[in-house]
Amino acid sequence: RPAWSRPRRPTMPSVESLQTALRVLVAERQELHQRGAVHDELEANRLQLVGRQQELSRALIDRYGSQGQVR
Prior knowledge:
Helices cover about 65% and strands about 0% of the residues. The protein is built from 2 helices and no strands. Helix 1 (about 15-35) packs antiparallel against helix 2 (about 40-65). The protein has about 70 residues and is mostly helical. The model has no long low-confidence stretch (mean pLDDT about 85).
């Protein structure tokens, strides 16, 4: 199929930008723990971490596809 006829994928953040975002969220979480943040703040941060980790998984699958599949 020619490239122009393929369905477009939504733009996805790069693996590197997602890794940076995860580092920032982890640092924020450590700071939240150090200052004794309330449950709701920690939970909001946890949900952000989970979301970025899922995005990173999808980005890595997109990047490397089935290159590493074992048969």
